[in-house]
Design brief:
Layout: E1 3-7, E2 13-17, H1 22-31, E3 35-36, E4 38-42, H2 48-59, E5 63-67, E6 70-74, H3 85-90, H4 98-105, E7 107-111, H5 124-132, E8 136-140, E9 143-147, E10 155-157, H6 163-173, E11 179-183, H7 189-200, E12 204-206, E13 212-216, E14 221-222, E15 225-227, H8 232-244, E16 248-252, H9 260-269, E17 272-276, E18 279-283, E19 293-295, H10 306-313, E20 319-324, H11 332-338, E21 343-347, E22 350-354, E23 363-365, H12 369-381, E24 385-389, H13 392-397, H14 401-407, E25 411-415
Parallel strand pairs: 2-16, 3-14, 4-15, 10-11, 19-20, 23-24
Antiparallel strand pairs: 1-24, 1-25, 4-6, 5-6, 7-9, 8-9, 11-13, 12-13, 16-18, 17-18, 20-22, 21-22
Helix pairs in contact: 1-2, 1-7, 4-6, 5-6, 6-7, 8-10, 8-12, 10-12, 11-12
Bound molecules: ligand EPZ.
């Protein structure tokens, strides 16, 4: 099995161009199923999850062509409402085609998405939304089916501001008859990106980026050219890597507005982050100050930055409390960090991190993509050579991570 090996101790220096956001590209590609004519998505990160989504669109009958950073989709001839089990099992975000298929074909059949390492991850809120739009839900044999010859606008109050549920319901509602309101909607930047694309395609969506989204149904949507927003989590990951090595980075292709919760917290730790003409400039000198972090829906501190930040806090001066309020099991990286001399105690949904003077290299394994990134970040500062296994998790969310870190001066490589 491939692994990443890192000899720690080199401060990172240089420039990184941030890729398009994975968690925007995936819903955007699903939304293309709603449109007639050609879509051309630019700045698409060429990640494994994006390749899986493209396979899924092709399996549904769409015409998909990819070339470096560009994905073209024509969904005129989608001919099946059923998603292949193996693709949904591989990637939970496959469930995002349900709303578009239901709206386009009046039917969608998806295998129950498996849980994953960070929690059970149900889709009850997605289904509640489809029912509010007039769909009938049929469950059985590990499959979920939604049926609605014609969707009609409705009112939905989300018990939890779920990102996926907000995206799925918003997509389905774009061509429903009448107006739909989604209350307690997720407000992440990726929701705004999706709404901007759908509106460019002819939809009538207002309020994306707030907790109240109003969608007035239209007849049809047409394919468009669209550029994916930069990846705020990839950006935060490089900020953490610069911080833990006492380095100096320039991050290009950044929307600093999307990073406010991360920048504020990292500045509290003592990381210098400055907005400059070409993007964000990051400077850091160790040791950093311990801080408390609680993950929350946007604009709170993002759960997708929790593991990376914990790696950093393992070396901060003092005691930090990290609380994970979004997922019920997103501390799988703690045991691995402890193998590297980190001093962390889990207490329910919180982890108490006592800063130590050094991390020591060890053989560790990634359990999900952000935990994998956290272990690479820890390895960049650890004494000795760290080996990170299960790197396929990392490939799902980071494009050319090893190559970029090499170009910044890290002693890192991947191999068997
Ligand atoms: C999206 O997942 C992201 N994935 C996740 O990124 C991210 O961590 C998450 O949003 C939160 O920001 C993509 O966009 C592809 P949720 P999603 O629905 O939509 C519960 C990464 O590392 N919930 O907001 O699945 C759920 O169990 C990934 O890039 C229900 O109870 O997240 C969880 O506890 C990981 N019922 C919480 O809500 C539902 O119907 C947040 O889930 C749906 C969700």
């Amino acid at each position: 099995m491939e692994k990443i090996t890192i000899r720690g101790g080199n401060p990172l220096k240089g420039t990184v161009k941030i890729n398009g956001a994975k968690n925007s590209a995936l819903p955007l590609l699903a939304a293309s199923l709603l449109t007639l004519g050609k879509n051309s998505f630019r700045d698409v990160p060429m990640l494994e999850d994006v390749a899986t989504k493209c396979q899924l669109l092709s399996a549904l009958g769409a015409k998909v062509e990819t070339s470096q950073g560009i994905v073209e989709v024509n969904a005129d001839n989608i001919d099946t409402f059923e998603t292949p089990y193996d693709l949904v099992r591989k990637m939970r975000a496959s469930v995002l085609v349900m709303g578009p298929l239901l709206a386009r074909l009046g039917r969608a059949r998806v295998s129950l998405p498996g849980g994953c390492n960070i929690g059970t991850r149900p889709i009850d809120l997605h289904l509640k939304g489809f029912m509010a739009l007039g769909a009938e839900i049929i469950m059985g044999h590990g499959y979920i089916e939604a049926v609605a010859p014609q969707l009609t606008g409705g009112r939905i109050y989300l018990d939890y501001p779920s990102v996926g549920a907000t995206e799925n319901i918003m997509m389905a509602a774009t061509v429903a008859q009448g107006t739909t309101t989604i209350e307690n909607a997720a407000a992440e930047p990726e929701i705004v990106d999706l709404a901007n694309y759908l509106n460019a395609a002819g939809a009538q969506i207002r309020g994306a980026g707030t907790n109240l989204i109003r969608i007035r149904g239209v007849e049809k949507l047409v394919g468009r050219e669209y550029t994916v927003i930069p990846d705020r989590i990839e950006t935060g990951t490089y900020i953490a890597a610069a911080a833990i090595t006492g380095g100096e980075l320039l991050l290009e292709n950044v929307v600093s507005d999307h990073l406010k919760p991360v920048v504020a917290k990292y500045q509290e730790m003592g990381v210098q982050i400055e907005e400059v003409e070409r993007g964000l400039k990051v400077n850091s000198s160790l040791p950093l100050a311990a801080v408390d972090v609680k993950t929350l829906p946007y604009p709170g501190f993002p759960t997708d930055m929790q593991a990376q930040t914990m790696a950093l806090l393992a070396l901060a001066r003092g005691t930090s409390v990290v609380t994970e309020s979004v997922f019920e099991n997103r501390f799988m990286h703690v045991a691995e960090l402890k193998r590297m001399n980190a001093s962390i105690k889990i207490d329910g949904r919180s982890a108490v991190v006592e800063g130590v003077d050094f991390l020591s290299a060890a053989q560790v394994n990634a359990s999900d993509l952000r935990a994998g990134a956290a272990l690479v970040i820890a390895g960049l500062a650890a004494q000795g050579v760290t080996e990170v296994g299960n790197v396929h998790h990392i490939d799902r969310g980071y494009y050319r991570l090893v190559e970029n870190l090499q170009s910044l001066g890290a002693e890192i490589k991947r191999g068997v």
